[in-house]
Design brief:
By secondary structure, this protein is α+β, with helices and mostly antiparallel strands. Strand 4 and strand 5 form a beta hairpin.
Length: about 130
């Protein structure tokens, strides 16, 4: 298993809401190889998808890729890990995550909520929880 992956987790092709919420954590936000991440974004996000980050909205797959790259550039050595189990209700899915240095407790946690249309993420809402003590 690679850094940050759950034991027993398999990456599958996009389509089901549960698959997409997991691939969003690892294949998009957790992928540091730019070409692999761009391919994953093209597979799991609709071309006109919107990523909601508080008051900010990132529109389109190229802008989503730039946002993820900027996040990773500012956090070298950090990995994502999932927390708990995904929840799915129709075309909506959610998954909690932690982000921090590999081998250490997460320094920030959050939750993604995705809305899926036609087998791809149409909208993703990212809720980031304040770091411990902050």
């Amino acid at each position: 298993m690679g850094p940050g992956t759950d034991e027993g987790t398999t990456m599958t092709t996009p389509g089901t809401v549960e698959d997409l919420v997991l691939r969003n954590v690892f294949g998009v936000f957790g992928e540091r190889d730019a070409a692999a991440r761009a391919a994953a974004i093209a597979e799991v996000y609709a071309p006109d998808a919107v990523l909601h980050l508080g008051a900010e909205a990132v529109r389109g797959t190229e802008a989503i890729d730039r946002h993820v790259q900027a996040l990773q550039d500012g956090t070298p050595g950090f990995v994502f890990r999932t927390l708990g189990e995904p929840e799915v209700d129709g075309g909506l899915g959610t998954r909690a995550w932690g982000y921090g240095p590999e081998g250490a407790p997460p320094v920030v946690t959050g939750r993604d909520v995705i809305r899926v249309e036609d087998g791809r993420i149409a909208e993703a809402f990212v809720f980031v929880h304040a770091p411990a003590g902050g």
